[in-house]
Design goal:
single chain; alpha+beta; Beta-Lactamase; Heat Shock Protein 90; 3 domains; seven-stranded antiparallel sheet; 19 helices; 20 strands
Length: about 650
């Protein structure tokens, strides 16, 4: 109930109502002996529920109590809440109502200010007090307290009124309130004597020790069970991960990761995003528990690295490499990267406004995020468990266990990535051998045809000279092809352990005149802006080849009378990975590259599939070197939307 009265406003005669001594004011020896014996027996009961049952039963045996409630204090977040644990002497309907109510520690303290203090731990609330307090809330109605019942007069000064109650507190050894005995109705219809109240106080004091001990036992048991559960869960995680390590197919592995997550931790849905080095963005790789429409839309999304900075803000860190973002706090610009349907972002706006059922309830837009890292600490991707089967935000223990699982998954993912890279290198070598065999065979057939034509009877010298020149061109093509295949094989056979700290600008300046000198008939104009100092990367002796292929590509395929090439090198800091990079760009005024050919030029397999055409492996070699150096490469139009005005190739390399 709420009131604007102060305790001083309560009339003195109301303060006089309550238990009175019926003798010397102290319990008899017989009563004390029964109380101490009964309370001592409580110390041997370990289960808190059994203890409270026995406590209530003992009270009713020793004292004339018809109905009573035993309250126990519990911590709910920052609040201390008093809840009913034992309810005796009420109808089933009354009991079901009483089981739903609770009081905060502040409400209890406020109520005591108005109650009549009748002992060290005891308070008496007379029915007459309710005529001065109000209005009555729903909890009061559960006890039958309303204006009519509160105004019913007491039959006699020592008689119990239906709205009277006595409250005797349980207090911890540290002096904190841990619960109470609340007498709702004595069996003899009279207000208990002061001697009885003091005897119950003694019983409550001794019972407090038993309650504290039982609660401690319960906590220890819960900790032990949690530890056993955690150990069993980790054992299952290790077992699953061992099986996962044997999976070499990436797609199957990703789906398996989510299936195991669901089996172990009870999530109905989940997703994985991984960083794509070629596209320089994050992409949804695997989804579980979503509609096909949601899967299709999600897999079409490209998530910029900047979009992930909000997900891994320190403000939302809940465990190592684990983050929890409440759905209500997702900003507008991040909603577009959420899993969605064709209804679009409007549906997500509505979901965000949906209230959370209670503080521990899972919200439809809650984000629980786990990072996948490689052995060097670089972020490979993220896992998003979603829609827990119990509808609750996972406990700290569960969040920690999922973190262990995610860490082990990271190892399995890196192993699979290394396996696929090794397999890919092997397949590329096989393709290169196939290219070498088929292309050389084709070139030889053409040369043979030209030679046969050059020695045919009656051929004039001009035509003979032409056929021989064509034969020499074919021989040069074969030599060029063999050199490029050897170079690609050489790159694939090397690893990053051979990389050294190299000056990017010096390497470029050394290569420019060498590359231009091979095209004496071409007029080449080189321009560049201000170059930064200390421009170092990790590379090897093949870095000159990287620049050579870029420059040669711009000159050789440019039909214009004057070839113009622009270079630039700029620093870049990636806040997402907290790493520094150099952005190297080369632009030209050539005829450009159509959109459908841009990606193919960086892919060896696509180049090899164009057998019969002139093999443009130069940019494939550049791409292979860039990835060896830990960078990324992209091809765009020099003038956006018009590929005929030239090309810009951008390479991002980690700074050394």
């Amino acid at each position: 109930m709420e009131t604007e009265l102060s305790p001083e406003d309560i009339e003195p005669w109301i303060r006089e109502i309550g238990p009175k001594p019926h003798g010397m004011g102290f319990p008899t020896k017989e009563v004390l002996d029964r109380v101490i014996d009964a309370a001592s027996n409580l110390l041997f009961i370990e289960n808190i529920d059994d203890l409270l049952d026995e406590l209530a039963k003992t009270l009713r045996e020793i004292f004339p109590i018809k109905s009573m409630i035993i309250w126990i204090s519990e911590n709910d977040g920052d609040l201390n809440i008093r809840k009913p644990k034992i309810i005796l002497g009420f109808t089933d309907e009354e009991k079901s109502k009483l089981q739903t109510i609770s009081y905060t520690g502040m409400e209890i303290d406020r109520a005591r200010e108005f109650a009549n203090k009748i002992g060290r731990l005891s308070y008496f609330v007379p029915a007459e007090l309710y005529t001065r307090l109000g209005p009555y809330d729903e909890r009061d109605l559960c006890f039958g307290i309303d204006e009519k019942s509160a105004s019913t007069p007491r039959k006699a000064p020592d008689m119990w009124h239906p709205l009277d109650h006595v409250n005797i507190s349980f207090v911890s050894q540290g002096g904190e309130y841990i619960g109470s005995i609340e007498i709702e109705e004595p069996s003899d219809g009279k207000i208990p004597s002061l001697e009885s109240i003091k005897a119950i106080e003694i019983f409550a004091s001794l019972a407090s020790v038993a309650i504290e001990q039982a609660e401690l036992n319960e906590k220890e048991q819960a900790i032990t069970e949690a530890a056993e559960k955690r150990s069993a869960r980790i054992s299952r995680i290790l077992s699953f991960v061992r099986e996962m390590l044997a999976i070499k197919n990436p797609e199957r592995m990703m789906n398996n990761i989510l299936t195991i997550l669901s089996d172990l931790f009870g999530f109905k849905a989940a997703s994985i995003i991984l960083f794509d080095e070629r596209e320089n963005c994050f992409k949804y790789i695997a989804l579980m528990g979503y509609s096909q429409e949601e899967v299709n839309i999600s897999k079409s999304l490209r998530l910029p690295k900047d979009s992930m900075r909000f997900d891994i803000s320190p403000d939302y860190l809940v465990a190592h490499d684990a983050y929890f973002i409440p759905g209500e706090k997702l900003p507008d610009e991040w909603l577009r990267y959420e899993i969605q349907t064709s209804d679009g972002i409007d549906r997500l706006y509505k979901l965000r406004e949906q209230p959370r059922a209670h503080p521990r309830a899972w919200h439809p837009l809650d984000n629980l995020i786990y990072l996948f890292r490689d052995r060097k600490g670089r972020i490979l991707g993220m896992m998003y468990p979603d829609n827990p089967s119990d509808g609750l935000i996972p406990s700290p223990e569960t969040i920690e266990s999922i973190g262990i699982y995610a860490s082990l998954v990271s190892i399995a993912m890196e192993n699979t990535k290394n396996y696929m890279e090794t397999l890919g290198a092997k397949e590329e070598i096989e393709l290169l051998n196939r290219l070498l065999f088929i292309d050389v065979r084709n070139q030889n057939a053409i040369m043979r045809r030209y030679l046969e034509m050059s020695i045919a009877e009656g051929i004039d010298k001009d035509r003979q000279k032409k056929y021989l020149k064509n034969t020499l061109n074919q021989m040069e093509n074969i030599v060029d092809l063999i050199q490029k295949v050897r170079r690609l094989s050489s790159i694939r056979s090397r690893d990053k352990s051979s990389l050294l700290r190299v000056d990017l600008i010096n390497s470029l300046n050394n290569q420019i005149p060498i590359s231009i000198s091979r095209y004496p008939k071409k007029k080449v104009k080189i321009e560049h802006g201000a170059m930064p100092d200390n421009c170092y990367i990790f590379a090897n002796d093949l870095i000159g080849d990287m620049f050579d292929h870029l420059i040669s590509n711009s000159i050789e395929h440019n039909p214009r009378e004057e070839v113009e090439i622009w270079f630039s090198i700029e620093p870049m800091h990636d806040e997402f990975t907290n790493r520094d990079f150099w952005i190297f760009s080369i632009k030209d005024n050539g005829t450009g590259i159509p959109d459908d050919r841009k990606k193919d030029l960086l892919d060896i397999t696509s180049q090899i599939s164009r057998l019969g055409e002139k093999t443009g492996l130069g940019l494939s070699i550049v791409s292979a070197l860039v990835h060896l150096y830990g960078g990324s490469i992209s091809i765009d139009d020099r003038i956006a939307g018009d590929h005929t005005k030239g090309t810009v190739i951008k390479i991002i390399l980690p700074a050394a």
